[in-house]
Amino acid sequence: MKIAIIGAGNLGLAIAKGVLHSNGATTMYLTKRNTTEIMDFEKYGNVTVTWDNREAVKKSDILIFAVQPGHFSGILEDILDLLTEKHVIISTITGFSISKIEEIIGSDKYIIRSMPNTAISVGNSMTCLCSNELGEKRIDLSKAIFNRMGHTLEIPEEQMQAATVICASGIAFWMRLIRATTQGAIQLGFDAKEAQELAMHTCNGAASLLIESKSHPEEEIDRVTTPKGCTISGLNEMEHQGLSSSLIRGIVTSFEKISQIRKG
Ligand SMILES: NC(=O)C1=CN([C@@H]2O[C@H](COP(=O)(O)OP(=O)(O)OC[C@H]3O[C@@H](n4cnc5c(N)ncnc54)[C@H](OP(=O)(O)O)[C@@H]3O)[C@@H](O)[C@H]2O)C=CC1
Ligand SMILES: O=C(O)[C@@H]1CCC=N1
Question: Which of 6, 26, 121, 138 has the fewest CB neighbours in a 10 Å radius?
């Protein structure tokens, strides 16, 4: 697999680390305009770091775009004449529709829209995918690439905006919840390091319970909330303070913001 990551910033580098951890590429190009801070990646023999998107495109089959939305059109226009039938174009760009990509490079290309998250760097991304009509022929290949770095779900393109909030922004939301739990644990007497250890492993355990037992969160909550016990007292106080409501409102606000990004 010859992979190019065009835009080796926060997400692009997370994908690069995921690819490296999973031995997912024979060669990998990483591009950005200022390459100084990522030259270290060339210590991996199969990685080339360059500012030259055209070189990366010529030498690769799988092109993963991870630039900011405002930069994407210009980059596509710049590499358009180099695109051939060997290329699979995978966009991670928020709010940039497949039809908009097709307007620039044509519908006769394999186009995949993906929405991974930064946990891809440790092989644990929840990645949603969809494709243009021709790209359906490469959706299994694309799933295979992302399945090596976590879990995938193929969704209709209309749900991509929602998937961005839940899966990609979701990492930040969960981080804040883990951080708040850590602050609570510190107030109860744990030192900062132990407090974070308790918070993140408990979070991991909660997710694992749902993934492995396929149960509903409320079933698991019922198993923890001893009648007249401390859990239900704390949980009800959190709800009186609007825990679920504030999460849902935040999710909807992020979703609405993407519509503004789409309009440019
Ligand atoms: N961060 C995340 O968790 C997620 C982000 N996304 C999407 O991924 C995209 C990237 O986001 P994020 O990583 O946060 O942004 P960053 O700004 O961290 O990364 C974008 C990178 O693109 C590079 N870049 C800019 N212009 C060019 C160019 N002409 N050629 C090559 N590289 C270029 C920039 O480096 P330089 O200036 O040196 O060129 C920068 O490193 C966005 O569209 C975002 O919506 C999607 C899911 C999750
Ligand atoms: O915040 C953003 O706009 C991007 C998309 C999802 C994660 N980061």
Answer: 26
Q: Is the CB of 19 within 6 Å of ligand 2?
A: no
Locate the ligand 2 atom nearest the alpha carbon of residue 10 and give its number: 8
Model confidence pLDDT, tens digit, residues 128-159: 999 999 999 999 999 999 999 999 999 999 99
Residues annotated as binding site? 6-11, 53, 66-69
Domain coordinates in residue numbering, the chain: 2-155, 164-262
Q: Is the CB of 254 under 6 A from ligand 2?
A: no
Q: Domain 2-155: state its class.
A: alpha beta
- Give the residue whose CA is nearest to atom 8 of ligand 2: 169
Ligand 2 pocket residue status of 169, Cβ below 6 Å = yes
ipTM value > 0.95: yes
pLDDT tier at 259 (50, 70, 90 boundaries)? confident
Q: How far is the CA of 11 from the centre of ligand 1 (A)?
A: 7
> Considering only CA atoms, which residue is closest to atom 22 of ligand 1?
7
CATH topology for the 164-262 domain? ProC C-terminal domain-like fold (1.10.3730)
**Of 153, 110, 160, the residue nearest 135 (C-alpha):** 110
